[in-house]
Amino acid sequence: MVQNISRRGCAVLACAALWLGLYGPAARAGDAADGSGCIELEVNGERIRDYACMSRMLAPPATTATPATTAPMAAEQRVRQPPSALGLANRAATQQRMGTSFGVSTQPQRPAPPPAPVRP
C-alpha cells in the first residue's frame, strides 16, 4: 500500500515537472511579451516585490458601463420601495390603527358595538 502511494506521488510529480517543462517557458514568454508581468528584485538577499503591479493584476477589469446606465439589482429595487409596499409598519400608521389605546393596550380601539335591535 505504501509503495503504491509513493509510486503514485512520484508519477504525479513527474507529470507536473513535465508540464512545467513544456508549458512553463511559453507562459512566462507570453507574460513578458504583453508587459503585464510584475518585476521582482533581489537586493542584498532580500526580495522586493512590486505590490502596486500585483494590485493592478488582481483588480477586476474596468467596465465600460456607468452605474447610472446599468439596471439596479432586485435587492436594490426592494430597498428603495416605500415601507408600506414592503408590509412594514410605521409609527403613524400604527397610531392611526390603534387609536386611543396606542401605547396603553395591545388591543386596538374599536367602537362600541351597536345596540341590539328591538323587536316588537
H/E element string? HEEHHHH
What is the beta-strand fraction? 5-15%
Assembly type of the chains comes to: single chain
Number of helices: 5
**Number of distinct beta strands:** 2
- Determine the N-to-C terminus distance: 104 Å
C-alpha Rg, in Å? Answer: 36 Å
The coarse silhouette is: elongated
Strand order of the largest sheet: 1-2
Report the helical percentage: 40-55%
Mean pLDDT: 74
Overall structural class, as computed from helix and strand content, comes to: mainly alpha
Q: Please summarize the sheet with the most strands.
A: 2 strands, antiparallel
Strand and helix layout:
Layout: H1 2-34, E1 40-43, E2 46-49, H2 51-58, H3 74-79, H4 83-86, H5 91-98
Antiparallel strand pairs: 1-2
Keywords:
2 strands, 5 helices, 120 residues, mainly alpha, two-stranded antiparallel ribbon, 7% strand
